[in-house]
Amino acid sequence: MQRSPKTLAAAFFRYLRPQGESALNEAMKELELLSKVISSLKIVGVFKNPLMQPEEKEKVLEKISSALQIHENAKKILLQILKMNELVNFSRIINACKNLRMNEFGTGEGLMLSGCELTESQQKAAEEIIKKMGRFKEVLIRKKVNPAIIGGLILKADDKLLDLSIQRQLRNMIKIVS
Predict the structure, then answer these.
(1) Cα 169–174–177 angle (5° rounding)?
(2) CA–CA dist 90, 88 (Å, integer)
(3) For the segment 64-116, what is each residue's pLDDT rounded down to a tens digit?
(4) Where along the chain do its domains lie?
(5) Which of 87, 91, 148, 157 allows an S-S link to 110, with CB 3.0 to 4.6 Å?
(6) Which phi and psi (to 5°) does residue 139 adopt?
């Protein structure tokens, strides 16, 4: 029986919620990592193979989980998804879980892209801007350094983007001069 990713996400969220926000956030980070690894290894097709026994599939996932040092909560959810034959929808299930977490706890995700490493005070200021942009109580920020933006920052929260980079300013000047 095929279940929607949102239905499965709600069930996993109900399983994790009583363990507290930090356990939920830890499990979500690990599940997101697993989702990226599984899709990057392109092994989902292997799990569709009817000749591969369920025990063999579990062993493969167990090895991946151990190599990534995944904790028990995330392993249980991953194995349940495998048993339900829903591994092909893993990334959609995880995205639905992320949305539930954000709605429940007012937690969001943001991106901080800079031309060089930022100081602690610069990171805190950027984090506050991202919180306001997304109207989040708490924010999980991915930080990236990209020398191509030369300097400044590019901040993203949900579908909002704030480009304060020197690269953008130079592009704008070139447009004006041309």
Answers:
(1) 125
(2) 6
(3) 889 989 988 889 998 888 888 888 888 889 888 888 877 777 877 889 999 99
(4) 5-103, 107-177
(5) 157
(6) -140, 140
